[in-house]
Design a protein that fits this description.
It contains nine helices and nine strands. The protein is an alpha/beta fold and about 260 residues long. It has a six-stranded parallel beta sheet, with helices on one face. Strands 5-4-6 form a three-stranded antiparallel beta sheet, covered by helices on one side. Strand 7 (about 185-190), helix 7 (about 195-205) and strand 8 (about 210-215) form a beta-alpha-beta unit. It is an enzyme of class 2 (transferase).
């Protein structure tokens, strides 16, 4: 059921672009990173391992943490929110590293923080990339990845962006391009306060997009919400399938959703 008065997209919105954060994946058990129940608070030693200057000593922790993330994501699969976005055919800019937009069928995904489903070479200049077969353990071999890079022989590492590391330029450029061309820009499950996500909604708005935040717990500070034309403080897993049904004019029971 659509809540009366709630914003809904219409046929005038031809370029819907989503920005997603950990909130859209929370029900998979991946959890969020920030906040009192976030991973960083629960496992401070993990947070310490995420600093790039501690490489390569922290590689075992990184394989353990991100390999586990990849396994949880792979086993759970996408949420109703991921699937609704994919069925809308909308491109996605994501802060998530769980690969669930691609698993849902989204074709254009700008992964601002890299991917836990992929490995790369410790040498940032080396082009090698590989895909994980996530298992459990603190060695790359535990996740189906060779210990050393097949191209140059350096150690391999999870392809997740750590603190103090540059964001992938390709993903950043794609994200900015998508934000500029959007006529409807929808942030889902992200406070949108962390760079570069904090820049994307203002860019979209400056280029004429209607901006919407869908988050069960939107930031209470009005200045953080000011960039959004509409704030929907509801569950994206209900809101987005509603939108998709509305835009595709299908009945409410046409899509069976196991989650
Ligand atoms: Zn290499």
């Amino acid at each position: 059921m659509t809540t009366p008065g709630r914003f809904v997209p219409g046929p005038q919105h031809e370029e819907i672009v989503f920005l997603t954060g950990s909130g859209i994946s929370a029900r998979t058990g991946l959890g969020t990173f920030r906040g009192p129940d976030g991973l960083w608070a629960l496992e401070p030693e993990t947070e310490q391992a995420m600093h790039a200057e501690l490489l390569p000593d922290t590689l075992p922790q990184l394989w353990s943490v991100w390999g586990r993330m990849a396994r949880i994501a792979t086993e759970h699969g996408p949420t109703p929110g991921h699937r609704a976005i994919a069925r809308l055919g909308a491109p996605v800019i994501t802060q998530n590293i769980d690969g669930l937009h691609q698993a849902a069928g989204s074709e254009v995904v700008a992964e601002l923080h890299g991917s836990a489903l992929h490995a790369r070479c410790l040498d940032p200049e080396c082009p090698w990339r590989g895909r994980l077969r996530p298992g459990s353990g603190s060695r790359p071999e535990d996740h189906g990845v060779p210990a050393t890079c097949p191209v140059c022989g350096a150690p391999t590492r999870p392809a997740v962006v750590l603190f103090d590391e540059m964001l992938p330029p390709d993903a950043l450029e794609l994200g900015m391009r998508l934000a500029r061309r959007a006529d409807l820009f929808v942030a889902v499950g992200t406070s949108g306060t962390v760079f570069p996500a904090a820049q994307l909604a203002p860019v979209a708005k400056a280029h004429g997009a209607t901006t919407v935040l869908v988050d069960t717990a939107p930031p209470p500070d009005p200045s953080m919400r000011a960039v959004f034309d509409h704030v929907i403080a509801e569950d994206a897993h209900e809101v987005l399938p509603d939108w998709e049904r509305g835009l595709h004019r299908v009945g409410g029971t046409s899509f069976l959703d196991p989650f």
